[in-house]
UniProtKB/TrEMBL annotation:
Organism: freshwater metagenome
Gene Ontology MF: a single term: copper ion binding
UniProt name for this protein: Unannotated protein
Catalysed reactions, as listed in the record: inosine + phosphate = alpha-D-ribose 1-phosphate + hypoxanthine; adenosine + phosphate = alpha-D-ribose 1-phosphate + adenine; S-methyl-5'-thioadenosine + phosphate = 5-(methylsulfanyl)-alpha-D-ribose 1-phosphate + adenine; adenosine + H2O + H(+) = inosine + NH4(+)
Keyword Nuclease recorded: no
Pfam families recorded: Cu-oxidase_4 (PF02578)
Keyword RNA-binding on entry: no
UniProtKB keywords: Hydrolase, Metal-binding, Transferase, Zinc
Entry similarity comment: Belongs to the purine nucleoside phosphorylase YfiH/LACC1 family.
Organism placement in taxonomy: unclassified sequences, metagenomes, ecological metagenomes
Gene3D superfamilies: CNF1/YfiH-like putative cysteine hydrolases
InterPro entries: Cu_polyphenol_OxRdtase, Cu_polyphenol_OxRdtase_sf, Cytotoxic_necrot_fac-like_cat
C-alpha cells in the first residue's frame, strides 16, 4: 500500500502554476500537466484522477478510465491502481483498509454533503473493516475566513468546525470537523497539519486565485 501528498515542487509548469501542477482544469497547458502527471505515473503506476464537483458521488473502479462521471471520491479494491484527489485548499482525504482504499475530496460543501461518510460506506460494501484516514495539506482554521452566515450554516451541522482567524473574524476548521465525523463512525483519522495558505510550497486558491493543484494519491 502506497500513499503520498504532492506539493508544487518538481514539475514542469511555469508562472502561477509553477511547477508540479496536476490540474487540467485551471488554465495550464494540458501537455505540461500531462508531463507532470507522467512523473508520478512512473513512481506509482496508473493513476485515476477525478472530475471533482463538490458533490456527494462516490465511484468504485476496477481499472483506470480516461473518462469518469463527475465525482468527489474514488474507491478500489484492485491492486496496481492509484487513486488521486486534487486540491488547492480543500482536504485531500486518503482512506485505507486491508484490501480497499479511497481518495476523497472534502471541502465545505463536501463536508455538508457527507462525502467522506459515503466513501467509507462504499469501502465497507467492498469488505473493508478496520479503516483509517489521513488528511493531507489543506487550509487551516486560522486562515479559512468565511462570512457569519456561512459559519452559522456549517456549525449548525458540524459544531467542531467553529473557528476564528487571528484577527477574530469567523472561520472554519474543516479538518477538525472531518476527524470528529469519521471518529463517530469508527474511523480513526489524523491530520498532517500543514496549511496550504500559509505554506508557499503548496498551491492555495485562497492565497493566489489562479493557481495549480496538488494531489493526494493512494494505492494498494
Amino acid at each position: 500500500m502506497k500513499s503520498i501528498f504532492t506539493n508544487r515542487i518538481g514539475g514542469y509548469s511555469t508562472g502561477v502554476y509553477e511547477s508540479l501542477n496536476l490540474g487540467l482544469h485551471v488554465g495550464d497547458e494540458p501537455t505540461t500537466v500531462n508531463r507532470n502527471r507522467a512523473t508520478l505515473t512512473e513512481k506509482y503506476g496508473p493513476i485515476q484522477f477525478m472530475d471533482q464537483i463538490h458533490g456527494n458521488t462516490v465511484v468504485s473502479i476496477k481499472n483506470v478510465q480516461e473518462v469518469l462521471p463527475p465525482c468527489d471520491a474514488l474507491v478500489t479494491n484492485q491492486p496496481g491502481i492509484a487513486l488521486a484527489v486534487q486540491t488547492a485548499d480543500c482536504i485531500p482525504l486518503l482512506l485505507r483498509s486491508e484490501g480497499v482504499v479511497a481518495a476523497v475530496h472534502v471541502g465545505r460543501k463536501g463536508l455538508m454533503n457527507s462525502i467522506a461518510l459515503r466513501a467509507v460506506s462504499s469501502m465497507r460494501d467492498l469488505g473493508a473493516r478496520e479503516i483509517t484516514g489521513l488528511l493531507g495539506p489543506s487550509i487551516c482554521g486560522r486562515c479559512y475566513e468565511v462570512s457569519q452566515e456561512v459559519s452559522d450554516e456549517i456549525i449548525a451541522v458540524h459544531p467542531t468546525a467553529k473557528a476564528h482567524t487571528t484577527s477574530g473574524t469567523p472561520s472554519l476548521n474543516l479538518s477538525r470537523a472531518l476527524i470528529v465525523e469519521l471518529q463517530n463512525i469508527g474511523v480513526d483519522a489524523t491530520d498532517v497539519g500543514v496549511c496550504t495558505q500559509e505554506n508557499l510550497e503548496y498551491y492555495s486558491y485562497r492565497r493566489s486565485g489562479v493557481t495549480g493543484r496538488q494531489a493526494g494519491i493512494i494505492s494498494l
